Amino acid sequence: MLTEATSISSSGGADKIRCDACPVMCYIKPGAAGACDRYANNNGELVRVDPHVVLERTMSHGGRLVPFQAGGDWDGKIVHESGVFVTAIGAGTTYPDYKPAPFIVSSEIEGVEMVTVVTEGIFSYCGVKVKIDTDRYLGPETATVRVQGEAVGHVTTGEYGSQMLSLGGVHHLTGGSKKEGRVTCDVLMDLSNGKPVEMTIDGGATVVAQAGHPPIVNGVLEERMRVGCGSATIGMFAKQWHGKIDEVVVVDDHITGVLSEHQAGKLLDIPDTGIKMKGRRSTPGRYFQVAEPGTGWGGTNISDPLSVLGPFDPKTARPGMRMMMVSTTGEHAAYFELDEALKPVEKEMPTDLKLSVERIQENCEPALCTVLFMGGAGGSLRSGVTENPVRLTRSVKDALTSVTCGGAPVYVWPGGGITFMVDVTRMPEGAFGYVPTPALVAPIEFTLRLSDYAALGGHMDHVRPLSSLKDNTELRQLPPQTTTPRRA
Amino acid sequence: MTRLPQTGWLADGKRLHLQDGPIDLIVEARGTDNNIRAAYEAAVCRFTGLLDILCDELPELRRAAHSEVSTLQGRVARRMHAAVAPFAATDFITPMAAVAGAVAEEILGAMTASADIDRAYVNNGGDIALHLARNERFTIGLVDHLGMPSLIGKTVIEASDLTRGIATSGWHGRSFSLGIADAVTVLARTAAQADAAATIIANAVDLPGHPLIVRRPASEIQSDTDLGACLVTRSVGKLSHHEIATALDAGAQKARTLLATGLIEGAALHVQGETQVVALKNGESALPCAEIAVRKRNLLHAAEA
Question: Whole-prediction pTM value?
C-alpha cells in the first residue's frame, strides 16, 4: 500500500523540524521521515505517513444496520450511502495523545459537509451497569459481585422491578490484583459483547446475566416481570375494580395485597369484607409470607388460592359478597361469591373483571437483563479528535457534535468531560475488545459539521472524503449482528 | 499521567502489537491461556515508559561506546552497552547498534519472569528475542534483501541450541550501514548481541573505494544520527560475481572471528542475490521458498512451529 510518505518531496526552502510525537524528538529534514517512519517533514510541516485501514460493515447478509441518529433531529445524516456506516470498530487505536484519530471521515450529504471522527478508545475508566428484571433477592446493597471468586463490582440501588449491578470501573480493572483486573476485563467485555456471565453475590444469589436475555437467578429462569408486588397491584388497579367487586386479593410471594384493607381501598371507601388472611400482616392490606415461595400463584407454592384465606368474619361478611383472587402477573385468577355459610364458591368471572386481569397481564413485561456500557472519553482520546480537546467537550454539550458508539446512540452525562452510556445490544456484534493493560477497547465516533470541526481546532489536514477511504484502504467485512434481542 | 504505548492485536487476534515512537513490537507467547495472558500483561507493563527512560540517556547512547567504561544507568541502556562493548575496542560502534535487540530482550525477559510459557518471541522490527522451553523449536525464515524481503532459506532453532536472539542488518534497512550487504542475519545468544553483531558483520561486507558504491555522511541524511559524519552506503551499482564474493568473504571472515569468540552462533550474508552462510543449521543449502511472501519490517522473519 502506498503511503503519503511516497509523495513527500524535499524543498530547499523548508527547514528541519523537531518532531514531538514521542520522546525521541527527531530532527527531521524536509522530505525525510523520523526514526519511526510514521512522521515525516513535508515542506516544513510534520505529517503522518502510516497507512490507514478502514472498516466497512456490509449489510449484504441481511444484517441489521445500526441506524445513525435514525429519526432524530440531527440534520447531518452522514454516511448513509449504499448502506455503509463507518464505525470505529477495528479503526485501531494510536496513542491518541499525539496523533489524530485514525479516521476523520468527511462526507457531503445534502449540501452539508459533515465529518465523523472515528477512533477506538481504550477505556480504563469504564464499566457496565446491569439491570436485572427480577424481584428476587439478589443480595444486599453494596454487596460485592464476584466472578471466579474475584470482586468485579457491587450491587447498587435497586430500581422498580429490577435489581441493579454496577460492574467494572478503574479500581477493579487496575487497582486490585492482576487476576482481579483480568477477570473484570473479561466480564465487562463478555457482557458488552452480549455473552452470558455467571456472577455470585456475597450474601445473596447466583445470577446469570446476558444482555437482552432473561436473567437466571439461582438456576431459575425469570420470564416475566410482575406488574408490581401484590400491594402495588392493588394500588394500581383499585379504581378500575371499584364498584365492580367487593374484595380483591392479589397473591404474591413478596407482599400479598387485600383491596378492602389497603390504603387504596380505604381512599375509595370500600367497606370491610371480614376477610381473614394467613401470613404476617405488614401494614393494613399488606401481608408477608402468606405461603412458601414456589412456582404457583404469584411466586408462591399454592395452586388453590383459597388456601391463603382463613374463614370470613361472620360479623362483617355477608352472603353474596363478590371476591376476585389474582396473581401479580395475571397468570392465575379466579372469581368467587360467598354462599349462605360465608364459604367462597368459584364462579364464572364477569367480563369486566376478566378485562382487568388481562390488563395486569398486559402490564407484565418480559424479564430481561440489560447492559449499559459506561465510559469516559479522556483528554488524550479527545485530542485525537481535535487540537483543543476541551472544545470537543463543549461542542458535544452544545449538541453540535453527536457522539455514537459503534454507530449506536449514546447518552452523554451532563457536567464535565465526555462520559457516556450506551445500550450494548444496539451495537454490532463483537464491538468490544480488550488490551492486556487491562482496559476495554470500545469504538467511539464524533460527528459534526465540517465547519464546526474546523472551528473547534479539528485536524483538518487529516479529513478524508468517505470515497477515499473506500478506494484506498483495506475493507474488512464484519459478520452482521445475529441476535436482535431488543423488543420494539 | 504516564504516556501509554499503543497496544493492540494483529488481525489473527493472537499476536500482540505494541508500539511506541520508533519501537514496533510483535509479541507471541505459547502456553496455557492464563500464562499467555500473564506474559502479555507483563510485556505491556514493562513496555510502558520504556522509551522515555531510554530517551533520557539518548545523547550518551549515541556516542561511540567504550569497551570497559559506561555511565549508562537504564536497564535497556546497559544491555545495549554490554552488547556492543566487545566490538568497541576494534570498531566504531555506539550502543544504538543494539537498541532493537535490547528492547526485544527486555520485554521477553519481563514475560518469562512472570509467566510459565513454552515458547515466545518478541520481534522488534526484525530483531527478535526468543524463548524456548523444553523441546520447543522455532523455524526461522531468512530474507536476502531488507528493502524487498522474500524468503530465501530457513533455519531451525531448538531449545537445546544456545541461540536466543536473531537480528538482521543491511544498508536498505531503517538503520544506516557502512557496508554493502543487502542483509546479514545473525543468530546469537541474546537479541542485543545478535543486533550488535549483525551491524558489525554488515559493515564488514564491503568493497572499500569501489566507484559504484555511493556513500554520504550520515548526518547529511539524518540530523541526529549516532553515526555523525561517518560515510554510509546510499546505493550500490551492479557488482561482478568476483566483487560480490570478495565483499562476502570479508564479512564471512568477520563472522567466523565472532563465532570463534562465542559472540555469534551463526550468520547468513547476502549481497545482490548471492549468499554465504557461516555455521547455520539446515541453512547451508539456503533453499528457495518463493511462495512465502514476507511483509516488510515487522515480519522480517517468519517464525513458525
Answer: 0.57
* CA dist., res. A255 & res. A251, Å (int): 8
CB atoms within 10 A of CB A400: 19
Locate B136 and state its grid cell.
Answer: 520447543
B221 touches chain A (CB under 8 A): yes
Residue ranges covered by each domain of chain B: 6-304
Cα torsion through A419, A425, A426, A430, rounded to 10 = 90
Of B24, B37, B221, nearest to A436 by CB-CB distance is B37
With a cut of 0.90, is the ipTM above it? no
The CA distance from A237 to A215, in Å, is 28
Nearest-by-CA chain B residue for A179: B38
pLDDT of residue A443: 79
Q: Across residues B215-237, what is the average pLDDT?
A: 87
Residue A215, φ and ψ in degrees, nearest 5: -75, 155
Q: What is the pLDDT of residues A1-49, one digit of tens each?
A: 333 333 333 444 457 888 887 888 888 888 787 877 777 787 787 776 6
CB A441 within 8 A of CB A434: yes
Lowest mean pLDDT among A152-166, A311-325, B172-186, B206-220: B172-186
The C-alpha atoms of residue A421 and residue A412 are separated, in whole angstroms, by 7
What is the tens place of the pLDDT at every residue in A388-418? 767 777 777 776 677 888 878 889 888 877 8
Per-domain boundaries in chain A: 1-51, 52-124+378-477, 126-221, 230-362
Domain B6-304 in this protein, CATH class:
alpha beta
Cα–Cα distance, B176 to B206 (Å, whole number): 14
The total of other beta-carbon atoms located within 10 Å of residue A75's CB is 11
Query: Which residues of chain B have a CB within 8 Å of the CB of A437?
Result: 4, 7, 41, 44
What DSSP state is assigned to residue A386?
Answer: B
Residue B262 near chain A (CB below 8 Å): no
CA distance A329 to A164: 21
Burial A288-297 (b: 16+ CB within 10 A, else e): eebbeeeebb
Residue A72: Cβ-neighbour burial (10 angstroms; 0-12, 13-18, 19+): exposed
Nearest in space to A215 (alpha carbons), one of A228, A198, A227, A232: A198
